[in-house]
Amino acid sequence: MAAFGRGECFVERYLDRPRHVETQCLADAHGNVVVVSTRDCSLQRRHQKLVEEAPAPFLTPEQETLLRDSSKAILREAGYVGAGTCEFLVGQDGTVSFLEVNTRLQVEHPVTEEVAGVDLVREMFRIAAGEPLGYDDPPLRGHSIEFRINAEDAGRGFLPTPGTISRWRAPSGPGIRVDSGYEQGETVPGDYDSLTAKLIVTGATRAQALERARRALDEFEIEGMPTVLPFHRAVVTDPAFTAEPFAVHTRWIETEFDNRIAPYAGPVAAGEPPVLERITVEVGGKRLEVALPAGLGAPAAAAPKKPAAGRRARKQAASSAGGDALVSPMQGTIVKVVVADGDTVAEGDPIVVLEAMKMEQPLTAHRAGVVLGLAAEVGATVAAGAAICEIKDPS
């Protein structure tokens, strides 16, 4: 009632550990609707996609037929015109449930383009010009996987982390496509989405696409700030994602992924060994990889690759603290104050909620005690390392 002024409730069936599967559709003004491809987008953190692939793997023929037929029926009934994505959840028992229609071209559309050979942006212009599609569901060839390269610290619960890129080296080779909006030396701000680039890898089969993805992710170098590259390198070797039965679901990262990724440690300190730069050259028709000290070709002040931490990372970014003080681990805007000054809290209780890069992150109590000196206000901007309050033992 408080939010909408109406008391009706809409009840939906709860699906435990569902997959997120969708169809990329095109609909013209003449009543024609085609499904260009299916996609799987189950690999998510905080219900936001990280990895997408086309076509959606490990579906039964009956499930694929249902997805395609349902998508066409929904768009025809709505009189929809343009590019759109029909999203579904697939339960552990195989149940397919409609979720929503995204009435736009989505971030993950390149994987559909790669396997269907259809330029979706061009088709949107054709449809807008009133032209008929002129074809049915296109045949698919190969398999394509997209990895979102976000400015987030995977070792700290995917904490949004704006910063300046001191080194940028994108992979290349057969089946490799990189769509990016940033270059070396540019700053990723905290006011916008954390996406810095998309790595799209395509192969003749899913197995070949995964093999190419492992190589491309190893070659991809972004330094000066944390990114989710370490997570992607881990997930392309995880049987839950790579093998059948497909065990990934929309809450898999939070509930089942064994996160051994070390938190980002920052730039190299003085006196530490120099970072080596890998360069691929071709000599006599053969590709060779050589290692040179970073900085010979361009300046680099970057973090070396760290060994994996031998422990499971916390599901939420741990609140930084020094003694009694609770400090913000990141720059952000306070969107919610959960407690009041003088409240008693337990370790792990939320104190405030910060928003950075369009994502909300709870800041939790690092110890049990009484909240003192809380001056946080909704809408206030806090810097990384700024004290939010103190949590002291009851007197």
UniProtKB/TrEMBL annotation:
The keyword Protein biosynthesis does not apply. PROSITE patterns: ATP_GRASP, BC, BIOTIN, BIOTINYL_LIPOYL, CPSASE_2. GO terms for molecular function: ATP binding; biotin carboxylase activity; metal ion binding. InterPro entries: ATP-grasp (IPR011761), Biotin_BS (IPR001882), Biotin_carboxylase_complex (IPR050856), Biotin_carboxylation_dom (IPR011764), Biotin_COase_C (IPR005482), Biotin_lipoyl (IPR000089), CPAse_ATP-bd (IPR005479), Rudment_hybrid_motif (IPR011054). Residues 1-256 form the Biotin carboxylation domain. PANTHER family: CARBOXYLASE:PYRUVATE/ACETYL-COA/PROPIONYL-COA CARBOXYLASE, METHYLCROTONOYL-COA CARBOXYLASE SUBUNIT ALPHA, MITOCHONDRIAL-RELATED. This is biotin carboxylase. It comes from Nonomuraea wenchangensis. Residues 299-324 are annotated as: Disordered. Its EC number is 6.3.4.14.
